[in-house]
Amino acid sequence: MIIRSLKVTNFRNYNRFNITLGSKMNIFIGDNASGKTNILESIAILGLTKSFRNGLDSDVIKFNKKKAIIEGRVINNKQIKDLKIEFLEKEKNIYVNSKKIKKYADYISNLNIVIFTPTDLEIIKGSPSIRRNLLNITLSQISYSYLITYNEYNKILKTRNEYLKVLFTNSIADRAYLDVLTDKLVEKAVLIYQERYNYLSLINSYISEVYNNITDDNKIIKILYKPNIIIDSYDLESLKEVLKDTYKKNYRRELSAGMTLFGPHRDDFYFLMDDDIDMKIYASQGQQKCAVLAYKLSSIPIFKEKNGSSPVLLLDDIFSELDLSKRNKLLKYVNEDIQSIITTTDLKNISKRTLKDAVIFKVNNGEIERS
Questions:
Q1: Which of 21, 104, 234, 365 lies at a C-alpha separation of 20 to 30 Å from 220?
Q2: Is the Cβ–Cβ distance between 74 and 111 less than 8 Å?
Q3: Distant-in-sequence, close-in-space partners of 220: CB < 8 Å, separation ≥ 6
């Protein structure tokens, strides 16, 4: 999968640009605050329909303009698709080959992306919601059934939470309806548990090798999946039984809380080094960065296996995050059968051999020039 062309209008600090990208490595070079990250953001939005930055959708519209447009031509296994996302002040429209798409679920996976930014250190150090969000973004691109199931789960979860509050305040409310909602929630939850467990198991089959290829540390890196219920088996029927039993035993507790306290919406996972060292507590910041990077790179062969093509790799200011040795090992690692789009402030200490096949763009205050 590659992005052949990218066009934006009135997006962030850009009035307009229209560029053709190389099929392998693309490097955008410019000073800090020149707009390099905005380029990666536009690509991320084109793939996921939303930004990796916090804020409102309308925030991407250039100041004093009424709408922003991102367009891209994507080639996947010889199939060409023209994607377009249009931001207005209070709405967002998405298109594939000029046809308006009503459901986001029908749009996701037209452009698969894996992105690494300097803030990704929070994946290890931050809250469980950050790690769940990471899982959901990746699995939604890999599996349409996961995306649909996860959306349905959240709708049922919202209804169940609302009804728990009704039961708490209304003594004559029918508990049988809660049981119906619980059964429906369990039906979706078990599929989410299975998908997440299987995906993280696949990550574990790659992550140590990727980490050691970048660092030469010779460490064992492992992801430990931690649902907030005790799961001995990820067999479908076993999961159903455990979940139903958990909700039954904790009915009074959830009633008092007015919310569903157990399920995949409370999941977490941890980065471990050498089997039992919690990287959040005991790893250096450099080790944490490389572990997150290895985690993301480990998803690439999974995309290829599941979807039949590699995702587009986005690396924001990655060179400042790594020393010279790790930097060139990473570039050698990604400069293979994948399109990568990289931002940096300079090209110092990058081997000429690596730069030979790269397409380089210079970014300066909202202007992009192919070098």
A1: 234
A2: yes
A3: 208, 273, 274, 275
Selection from 206, 203, 221 nearest residue 290 by Cα = 221
Neighbours of 342 (CB within 10 A): 25
Alpha helices (H) along the chain: 36-48, 122-125, 128-142, 144-169, 175-215, 236-249, 251-257, 279-282, 285-307, 324-334, 352-356
- Based on the fold, state whether residues 58 and 167 are members of the same structural domain: no
pLDDT, tens digit, for every residue of 240-267? 999 999 999 999 999 999 999 999 999 9
pTM: predicted TM-score of the whole model, two decimal places:
0.94
| Structure tokens, 92 | 């967002």
List all residues 6 or more positions away from 40 whose beta carbon is below 8 Å from its beta carbon. Answer: 115, 117, 314, 316, 341, 343
Under 8 Å between Cβ of 249 and 242: no
The answer on 94 and 12 residing in a single domain is yes
Does residue 288 sit in the same domain as residue 321? no
3-state secondary structure 121-170: HHHHHCCHHHHHHHHHHHHHHHCHHHHHHHHHHHHHHHHHHHHHHHHHHC
CB of 254 closer than 8 Å to CB of 164? yes
At 318, list the tokens: 């990655």
Query: For 60, which DSSP code?
Result: G
145 Cβ neighbours under 8 A, 6+ residues apart: 191
Number of domains in the chain: 2
Give the position of tokens 């053709």. Answer: 20
Distance between CA 226 and CA 152 in Å, rounded? 22
Shared domain for 217 and 108, answered yes or no, is: no
- Enter the tokens of residue 287: 């080790």
DSSP 324-338: HHHHHHHHHHHSSSS
Q: Give me the domain span that covers residue 263.
A: 124-306
Could you report the per-residue pLDDT of 28-50, keeping only the tens digit for each?
A: 999 988 999 999 999 999 999 99
Boundary residue ending a domain (288, 306, 324): 306
Claim to verify: residue 297 and residue 320 sit in the same structural domain: no
Per-residue pLDDT of 107-146, as tens digits, reads: 999 999 999 998 898 999 999 999 999 999 999 999 999 9
